[in-house]
Design brief:
The chain has 209 residues and is α+β, with helices and mostly antiparallel strands. The chain contains eight helices and four strands; from the N terminus they run ααβααβαβαβαα. Helix 2 packs across helix 5. The longest helix is centred in the middle third of the chain and has 18 residues. The chain is globular, with a radius of gyration of 19 Å. The structure holds flavin mononucleotide (FMN). The site of flavin mononucleotide has 9 residues, from strand 3. Flavin mononucleotide binds next to strand 3.
Length: 209
């Protein structure tokens, strides 16, 4: 795996598109600028995600290292464990969900779901362009809310580091091992049910035989 650090292809139970199997979340990012034009393409992919009632409840705060103040503000919201590595990424973002519908202000139960769809669109587009993305729940939500004047009824969702893959050797030692560990997932039979909660679907049981 060491020689092949860039390749952490998922060993899937069934064949999937290589954009899915080849995507992974690295911590070592190269000191290489992501052109704004490429960043726009990645954000455009997010724009075209599906959403409940086409509400498009996502927003993104974006900063590149070309804007050190903005970048530093986003970086400052990260928890210490993420600060160890995320500052290598040339682009940081914060995804934000609008929790109520534009039209009548009632709760949009699918806001976070839809933000996740937009981010996955972004991630797959980035993967197709040779970029890597690492999402982070580890950030100070209230600090971000204050720092960026995020209005009420908008919820900071996740921080996002984006860039090109870097050298493993640039990471603190305790993170290197994690980078090399194989990627792992629960089997389909643990989360695909039919009829009753917890009852594995025959669709996936058949395949598991
Ligand atoms: C919403 C979300 C939050 C995450 N938060 C963190 C985080 O704070 N720090 C971190 O190092 N990784 C974080 N991750 C990365 C996950 O740990 C990673 O996606 C998971 O282990 C699967 O690995 P893979 O993306 O390489 O397949 C997060 C991922 C997602 C989607």
């Amino acid at each position: 795996m060491k020689e092949n650090f860039a390749e952490k292809v998922a060993s899937t139970q069934y064949p999937v598109h290589e954009l899915i199997s080849r995507r992974w979340s690295p911590r070592a990012f190269a000191d290489r600028v992501v052109p704004d034009a490429d960043l726009r393409r990645v954000l455009e992919a997010a724009r075209w995600a599906p959403s409940s009632a086409n509400e498009q409840p996502w927003s993104f705060l974006v900063a590149t290292k070309a804007d050190p103040d903005d970048y530093q503000e986003l970086f400052s919201c990260l928890v210490p464990g993420n600060k160890l590595w995320a500052g290598q990424a040339p682009v940081l973002m914060l995804s934000v969900a609008k929790l109520v519908f534009e039209e009548d202000g009632t709760p949009n139960r699918h806001a976070m779901h839809d933000v996740g769809l937009a981010v996955e669109n972004m991630v797959l587009q980035a993967t197709a362009m040779g970029l890597f993305v690492h999402q982070m729940a580890g950030f100070e939500v209230d600090k971000a809310r204050k720092l960026f004047a995020i209005p009420p009824r908008y919820e900071p969702a996740a921080m996002i580091a984006l860039g090109y893959l870097g050298d493993l050797g640039t990471l603190p030692e305790k993170l290197r091992e994690r980078e090399l560990s194989p990627r792992d997932r629960k089997p389909l039979t643990e989360f695909v049910y039919t009829g009753r909660w917890g009852s594995p679907s025959s669709v996936v049981l058949k395949g598991a035989l």
